[in-house]
Amino acid sequence: MALLDIRNLRVAFDTAAGPFLAVDGIDVSVDSREVLAIVGESGSGKSVSMLGVMGLLPDSATVTADRMTFDGRDLMTMTAAERRAIIGRDIAMIFQEPMASLNPSFTVGFQIEEVLRQHLGLKGRAARARAVELLTQVGIPEPETRLGSYPHQMSGGQCQRVMIAMAIACEPRLLIADEPTTALDVTIQKQILDLLMALQAERGMALILITHDMGVVAETADRVVVQYRGRKMEEADVLTLFEHPGTAYTRALLAALPENATGERLPTVDELMAAEGQS
């Protein structure tokens, strides 16, 4: 049985022009210890899908699914309190833009310790000691001193490491990383990805990696889901996807990789899909 199993996920937003269907019938599953990449261009519904699972979308969103279970438990029928007990503890998420995701009004130590207080009941010295341990695990130098720092006093890479520390604080069974290297330079991107993969292997977590970078997919994933315009285009193990892509959209993504550049104009996705009778 899959750790997370979602069938026919739909997310619609109420707008002035009427309902807007952002996610249209997505199926996603991930097993324990597996790395699943969800890939697609911006606006394809990758983040919205997972925010719907986390219950973090605004009231204007309507989330439905034929099935949404975590470890066999139905997330759709849980009470709000039951779901809060799982989200943040058993399922955790690293968000885009670490500088915007951390609260600028509180020290990073306070924000890490708040997670420990809410989910594990740790307080005082115990919470502080655990926060120091977490900052050490994610490679923050002088962790005792850094607990007193505010987000603006840290670099983007350091803030992302703090976000990772918060996400792994309760030793989740599933970690969702939403474009975890956005706005970071290339060197820091590799460091963050290497850290995530090391933590995943060490802790045996399932990892869902949301990205538009096919190079990252090739280096990290066991299995890949490709999304486009709110729909799942295909799903395959990573080797099959790269060697035998099954849709025009996936081939367009692969053709856009720098190493595949020919100097010629690439056809648009719509042109490719129309040529193959896909929509």
From TrEMBL:
Cellular location(s): Cell inner membrane
Any single GO molecular-function term of the entry would be: ATP binding
Q: Which residues form the ABC transporter domain?
A: 6-254
What GO CC annotations are associated with the protein? Answer: plasma membrane
Per the record, membrane topology reads:
Peripheral membrane protein
Say yes or no: keyword Nucleotide-binding present: yes
Instruction: Give the PROSITE patterns listed for this entry.
Output: ABC_TRANSPORTER_1, ABC_TRANSPORTER_2
Keywords for this entry?
Answer: ATP-binding, Cell membrane, Membrane, Nucleotide-binding, Transport
Q: Name one Pfam family in it.
A: ABC_tran
GO terms, biological process = transmembrane transport
Which SUPFAM superfamilies does the entry link to? P-loop containing nucleoside triphosphate hydrolases
PANTHER family in the cross-refs: DIPEPTIDE TRANSPORT ATP-BINDING PROTEIN DPPD (PTHR43297:SF2), OLIGOPEPTIDE TRANSPORT ATP-BINDING PROTEIN APPD (PTHR43297)
- Entry similarity comment: Belongs to the ABC transporter superfamily.
- What is the protein's name according to its record? ABC transporter ATP-binding protein
